[in-house]
Amino acid sequence: MEINITFRDGEWLIQPDPATVKVGESITWIVRAERSAVRRLRWTIYFDHGVPFLERPWMVIPMDPVPLNASLRLSLSTITLNTGMSSILERDSGLARRLQSLTQEGQAIPDHGGATEPITTERPGTYKYGVKLENVENGELLGDDDPTLFVV
User: Fold this and answer.
1) Residues 34, 38, 44, CA angle at the centre, nearest 5°?
2) How far is CA 98 from CA 94, 95, 113, 124, 132, in A?
3) Residue 42: CB partners within 8 Å, gap ≥ 6?
């Protein structure tokens, strides 16, 4: 399953939300920011209260006498670079029309786009997870949202 995350003008669009997947199904988060002036963005998908991806509730780190509960937290991050497409398309309407014909109807061509690696669900349950977006250059938090994932 793909979960699409779009950030534009300070607003989130996450589809689907809530998302429902079966145990054993892989999830990839697709991220995009439209009309962004920021050069580099850090996208973080994080699970703070249980993780549907780790079947083993305890993991021991070699040489560490205290076991780590790996099911409590997980963070996936990706950094995207600004392509400058929105400003290019504003200057060249012919190019804009040609590129728009290659995208889905109503979908803008993003300045930033990326994806996480697929990860396979292993534990059923209801999971509230976070999606955070930051400016890599200055650490400014641009947005944080909390969609829901159902694993059945």
Assistant:
1) 75
2) 6, 5, 19, 44, 32
3) 77, 78, 79, 133, 134, 135, 136
Name the residue among 137, 131, 128, 148 with its Cα closest to residue 76.
131
**pLDDT tens figures, 102-137:** 555 545 555 677 888 888 998 899 999 999 999 888
Q: What is 2-83+111-151's CATH superfamily?
A: Immunoglobulins (2.60.40.10)
**What is the model's pTM?**
0.69
C-beta separation of 27 from 93 below 8 A: no
CA–CA gap between residue 24 and residue 1 (Å, rounded): 11
Domain boundaries, the chain: 2-83+111-151
Long-range contacts of 106-110 (CB under 8 A, 24+ apart): 108/8, 108/34, 108/35, 109/34, 109/85, 110/6, 110/32, 110/33, 110/34, 110/36, 110/83, 110/85, 110/86
Main-chain dihedrals φ then ψ at residue 136, nearest 5 degrees: -65, -35
Minimal CA–CA distance to 15: which of 91, 104, 78, 95? 104
